[in-house]
């Protein structure tokens, strides 16, 4: 039985969980969210490391085949610390914005991210390494991840408009540098007239996770087992049911449908 743990401050782990269920529909998932300490971008590096280690410990108790840090900000600040604690016994996979893929198009692009990730040396190193030949516009999106956690559509649209206002009108490519943002990809594309191309990380992260544990990414199809469940969800260490706010997003509805009937009754 394949078992994978994912951690994030909030709903940002939803995209990676959905991608894992698509590519490995037999896998069971354990989710560790941290609503008491969201947003992670507001924490000091030391505090964020402590929170990531706390969630990783909750996941490690289930003896998973891998742990996914499904959060860009936590990956920037805490990936190496969590790896030092658990590898090689448990592979730990971080989340990297799809800068390399976007740069491969040869088009200028923007990177939308939390203020903490936008100002990080980590993101600038990605740009310098993979996108030196094109123009890259870092766009900080304060409040967008928080609005997505709350499923507050008015706040989501306001944050999207504010981010678009920071971009050159002719720029049509966006790298989503926060795992939350993919949940509102359709709203981002609809907010500006004309074509917008988005690059996101869940499928690459899911594929890398499965590679690390030696699992073929077959995907959902005829004859493929589709038995995987969300067997446990945690909120800052408390065992809970998945939040009903997931109903606001198509991937969230799919995740709710996979919640184990043995999950506890308490909601976040």
From TrEMBL:
PROSITE patterns: ASP_GLU_RACEMASE_1, ASP_GLU_RACEMASE_2. It is an enzyme of class 5 (isomerase). The keyword Magnesium does not apply. GO terms for biological process: peptidoglycan biosynthetic process. Pfam families: Asp_Glu_race. One of its GO terms (molecular function) is glutamate racemase activity. Keywords: Isomerase. SUPFAM superfamilies: Aspartate/glutamate racemase. InterPro entries: Asp/Glu/hydantoin_racemase (IPR015942), Asp/Glu_race (IPR001920), Asp/Glu_racemase_AS_1 (IPR018187), Asp/Glu_racemase_AS_2 (IPR033134). The keyword Isomerase applies. Its EC number is 5.1.1.3. This is Glutamate racemase. It comes from Brevibacterium antiquum.
